[in-house]
Write a structure and sequence with these properties.
- The chain is α/β, with parallel strands linked by helices.
- Helices cover 45% and strands 16% of the residues.
- It has a five-stranded mixed beta sheet with strand order 2-1-3-4-5.
- Helix 4 links the parallel strand 3 and strand 4.
- It has five helices and five strands; from the N terminus they run αββααβαββα.
Length: 182
């Protein structure tokens, strides 16, 4: 396969992950989406849902991998590729390894919890028994912008809420911080 074909292939599936991330945003979750593909066919998708499901493990990757395992009738997913809009964390990296995903493709790097090289590189640890190929930075700008915009909007909503509470209480908005605005 040519490098151009691989890049087009990766961008196509990453766009579907970006679309899945929009579902997370619509549900009030951090917009991260994931798609599992095997032999050029979408097996499953997932998006972040830890808030709505009250499940700290309901990251987009985990949801997509659970859905793929059910769809294929096997907890092992050899030959499958995982496309995710944000670099997987260590928890997700562990599940990716255990499920035997052959390749991980992510969009935005995660400098706080990324386990594909940003903080740690779980997939480069030679003592582990499975090593997926990893490609980062696919549609990185689109993925990063989606996340940045979500957090900017959330901060603006918090500021607006503080200003509204301040107006109702007739106090300066800066005096209503999360610690003393009960």
């Amino acid at each position: 396969m040519s490098e151009d074909f691989v890049q087009e292939h990766d961008a196509r599936w990453m766009q579907l992950a970006i679309d899945a991330a929009q579902q997370a945003r619509a549900a009030g979750e951090v917009p991260v989406g994931a798609v599992v593909v095997r032999d050029g066919v979408v097996v499953a998708t997932g998006f972040n849902q830890p808030i709505g499901t009250h499940d700290p493990s309901a990251h987009a990757e985990m949801v997509a991998l659970r859905n793929a395992a059910k769809a294929l009738g096997n907890y092992r997913l050899p030959g499958c590729e995982l496309y995710v809009t944000l670099e997987p964390c260590l928890m997700c990296a562990g599940v990716i390894m255990h499920s035997r995903i052959s390749r991980v493709v992510y969009g935005a790097r995660d400098p706080k919890t990324g386990a594909c090289g940003s903080v740690v590189d779980a997939f480069a640890e030679l003592r582990l028994n499975h090593h997926a190929g990893v490609v980062g930075g696919v549609l990185e700008t689109e993925c990063s912008t989606q996340l940045s915009q979500f957090f900017a909007d959330r901060r603006a909503a918090i500021r607006a809420e503080r200003a509204e509470r301040a107006a109702q209480a007739d106090v300066p908005p800066d005096s209503l911080t999360p610690r003393n605005a009960r």
